[in-house]
Amino acid sequence: MEIKQMASVIADELQITSGQVERTIALLDEGSTVPFIARYRKEATGMLDENQIRFIQEQVQYLRQLAERKGEVIRLIAEQDKLTEELEKQIRDATKLQQVEDLYRPFRQKRRTRATVAKEKGLVPLANFMLMACTGDLQEEAAKYISQEKGVASAEEAIQGASDIIAEQVADDPDVRSWVREYTMKHATLITSKKEDEPSGKKVYEMYYEYSEPVSRMAPHRVLAVNRAEREGILRVKLALDSAPILQHLERNWIRKNSIAAEQLKSALEDGYKRLIAPAVEREVRGLLTEKAEEQAIHIFAENLRQLLLQAPLKNRVVLALDPAYRTGCKTAVLDETGKLLEVAVVYPTPPQNKTDEAKRVLTELIEKYGVQVIAIGNGTASRETEQFVANMLKEIDRDISYIIVNEAGASVYSASKLAGEEFPDLDVAERSAVSIGRRLQDPLAELVKIDPKSIGVGQYQHDVSQSRLADSLQFVVESAVNYVGVDVNTASPSLLQYVSGITKQVAKNIVSRREQLGKYVSRAQLKEVPRLGAKTYEQCIGFLRIPDGENPLDNTPIHPESYPAVAVLLQELGIRTDEIASEAAKAKLKEVNVKDMAQKLSIGEPTLTDIIESLLRPGRDPREELHAPLLKKDVLDITDLSKGMELQGTVRNVVDFGVFVDIGLKNDGLVHISQLSRRFVRHPLDVVSVGEIVTVWVKDIDVEKGRVGLTMLGPEAVQ
Question: What pTM value is reported for the model?
Answer without folding.
Answer: 0.84
